[in-house]
Amino acid sequence: MSKLPTIHETRPVASSRLFHVEEVHLEFSNGEQRIYERLANRGHGAVLVVPVLNDDTLLLIREYSAGTERYELAFPKGHIERGEDVLEAANREIMEEVGHAAHELHLLRKVSLSPSYMAHHTHLVIARHLYPHRTEGDEPEQLEVVPWKLDNLDELLQRDDFTEGRSLLALYLAQDWLQQNT
Q1: Is 61 exposed, middle or buried (CB count within 10 Å of its CB: 0-12, 13-18, 19+)?
Q2: 98-112 pLDDT, tens per residue?
Q3: Which of 19, 35, 140, 157 is most exposed, with minimal Cβ within 10 Å?
Q4: CA angle (126 as vertex; 123, 130 as ends), nearest 5
Q5: Torsions phi, psi for 48 (to 5 deg)
Q6: H-assigned helices in the chain
């Protein structure tokens, strides 16, 4: 199974402002041929940031999510802009969404969301030593910033509006990182 399938053709199926769907015609090492569909990568990836204020408080945001048709509690996130590196994008996102910048940023992990169907990665970043600094973002409304004490994470995990998978994973990774680095 170590030999990658041969890609014979990739062609567009549908496209919108945010999504680009393509067919991928594959041949596996045993001669089997399949056509897969995937959401193609239309950018430079994304970042999701765990901002840590005063070493004991996380900053989350409450933001409307069109997919679930409700407000969700999650960590700040956004696309990496052309020319930005991951940590620059992370710092920009927290300045836009929570009104703070960070003196210290660390990449926790790069994750895929649904690798069978999406060519997209999100970089999970922890931000520490925050200081007030707000910049204008592209959000349609002011985001509610929700501070959450680290010693109360069990309650956060029980909330029915904290369901975003990347935020859940980032929470566990950040918790482990903080235990090892504070």
Answers
A1: buried
A2: 999 999 999 999 999
A3: 140
A4: 135
A5: -130, 130
A6: 86-97, 153-158, 165-181
Tokens coding 80: 């990496």
Domain map (residue ranges) of the chain: 6-39, 46-181
Residue whose structure tokens are 């901002």: 51
Instruction: Report whether CATH 3.90.79.10 matches the domain 46-181.
Output: yes
- Express each pLDDT in 129-175 by its tens digit: 999 999 999 888 999 999 999 999 999 999 999 999 999 999 999 99
Q: What are phi and psi of 174, to 5 degrees?
A: -65, -40
Residue with the larger pLDDT of the pair 43 and 139: 139
Whether the CB-CB separation of 104 and 178 falls below 8 Å is answered with: no
Query: What radius of gyration, in Å, describes the C-alpha atoms of the chain?
Result: 19
DSSP state letter for 141: S
SS3 32: coil
